[in-house]
Amino acid sequence: MDFIIFNTCTVRDNANQRVYGRLGELNGYKKRNPGMKVALCGCMMQEPAVIEKLKKSYSFVDLIFGTHNIFKLAELIWTAYESEGMIIDIWEGTDKIVENLPAERKYPFKSGINIMFGCNNFCSYCIVPYVRGRERSREPEEILREIKRLVADGVVEVMLLGQNVNSYGRGLGQSVTFAGLLREVEKIEGLKRIRFMTSHPKDLSDELIEVMKHSQKICRHLHLPLQSGSTRILEKMNRRYTREQYVALAQKIRREIPDIAITTDIIVGFPGETPEDLEETIDVVRTVKYDNAFTFIYSKRTGTPAASMEQVPEAQIREGFDRLLKVVQDTAREQAMQYQGRRMEILVEEVMEEKHSMECPSSIVTGRLSNNLLVHVPGDASMIGKLVEVSLDECHGFYYTGHCV
Ligand code: 5AD
Ligand code: SF4
């Protein structure tokens, strides 16, 4: 191997620990292959304490850069090969967005599109605003141009990405909202499906609900992070909504857009969280009936306000996490069950298994419903990237088996 680059995440500490683990393994490998270069980039590099640690204990790393100057990648690689020792190029922040960077797609038929960068919300547990900088929205024309180019290249589904898409457009010279952007994206001919994430509950507008409700292309799925169901904890988290406001919003969305899947993120063990607080979270899970939820154990991030608050004992967190997870899984299973026997459309993503036996002559493909549930149906590679109508025959908890109709 000639060149290894790790693009890092620092939202939770276990990702950081894995990077150090990998670097430990690489050290020996590099001694045997002195020509090899090792590079690190991404959010973790925006933390000064990480850079200090790398300089001290991992001095064999050749190149380190951050989130704001990724557009310099080619130049930085060149410099790393031209010089000796560790090259560090970290920018503290930027107010610029570099357009038209080349990108390689994992799937030919779907693509993520950043519509904004950074975050201004400063939830008290979260390191993102410190490592990604202030919120900046891309010009709508740039976004639309990129999507049109992708569609011309075979893309039928886009995922619009931002830390808080509901505040898209703030700070742009022209007045444009996220809902307004979605209306324009909807008009792009050849584009079949639109997804987006993440929505901060405090900024989700009635205009967005209206646009989703009448859209032919926006998928029936909303990721709406709850984080906690206790108003007391939400306040300490600086989330700027109460339990009641969140539940009312989720119920309004379910009422206005039938068949919508609502998914969420929940943190267990935020400083000061009691078993009673967690009970309130579990109660919200039961009330909103999440179609899926990502549950995280609170991870202390140096430099965030929550890091200096009183931490919850580990045993309490473990117990609470397991209790929550069980409710989340039961609820998700129940939600998935309600589509049994229905006919719906999937976008076929990949061939699952090649099976050529006498009983089952065809292979199995897997596709996604608009609500993000997976469905396995008999089919072949020629269906990849196509929308096909299927019957949902049997629910297996988190996915269906079915057949094309
Ligand atoms: N500890 C645990 N989970 C966190 N998240 C963000 N910061 C932390 C943290 N310090 C979770 C939130 C967010 C998701 C992307 O990661 O739930 O929505
Ligand atoms: Fe972090 Fe809150 Fe911003 Fe999400 S909205 S990235 S949780 S600060």
Structural description of this entry:
There is one protein chain. The protein is an alpha/beta fold. 33% of the residues lie in helices and 22% in strands. The chain has eleven helices and 17 strands. The strands form five sheets. Strands 13-14-15-17-16 form a five-stranded mixed β-barrel. The chain has a four-stranded parallel sheet with strand order 1-2-3-4, sandwiched between helices. A three-stranded parallel sheet has the order 5-8-9, with helices on one face. Helix 6 packs parallel to helix 7 and helix 10 runs parallel beside helix 11 (314-337). The N and C termini lie far apart (48 Å). The site of 5'-deoxyadenosine has 12 residues, from strand 11. 5'-deoxyadenosine binds at residues 11-12, 125-126, 225, 227, 265, 267, 296, 298-299, 301.
Question: Which sequence of SSEs, written as H and E, runs from N to C?
Answer: EHEHEHEEEHEHEHEHEHHEHEHEEEEE
Helical/strand content category: alpha/beta
| Attached small molecules | 5'-deoxyadenosine, iron/sulfur cluster
How many strands, what sense, and barrel or not for the largest sheet? Answer: 5 strands, mixed, barrel
Query: Any idea what the shape is?
Result: globular
- Give the rounded overall mean pLDDT: 95
Oligomer: single chain
